[in-house]
Amino acid sequence: MILSLIAAVDKNLGIGKDNQLLWHLPADLKYFKKITSGNTVIMGRLTYESIGKALPNRRNIVLSRNKDFVAEGCEVMEDLFTAIKSCKKNEEVFIIGGATIYRQAIQVADKIYLTRVEAIKDADAFFPDFSLSAWKLIHMEMHKADEKNKYNYTFSIYQRIG
Q: Number of folded domains in the chain?
């Protein structure tokens, strides 16, 4: 199994404010869908609530310590490591947020798909700062702002070294 984190971050690693994304970037949403479709996504309860539904064409796992929590179309599990253990050995599993789940998962992740947005936004949730010495940049694709995407952005993929 490959455990991957996928997120869009501003220049300060901000990912959200008041349980919402910091921007509307259609190209990033399309990229996210392309990369995660057909795979398992694991998210915290607040991330699930901000999305409002299970993501189609993916196995959705929502983490919640509330044993009575129900998320239609999703499997609810108590913790990240139980969720990871439930995944198949030959699949790529994506951690899609939020900040607390990213902090837990980055310790054991194999890859990071990071959309770096050329902006600084007022954020209250952040992607964990990670040491580039432990990761190798294996793909980078730069894009300029356009009529649909307000900011310059770069799709980057990092792989853990060793």
A: 1
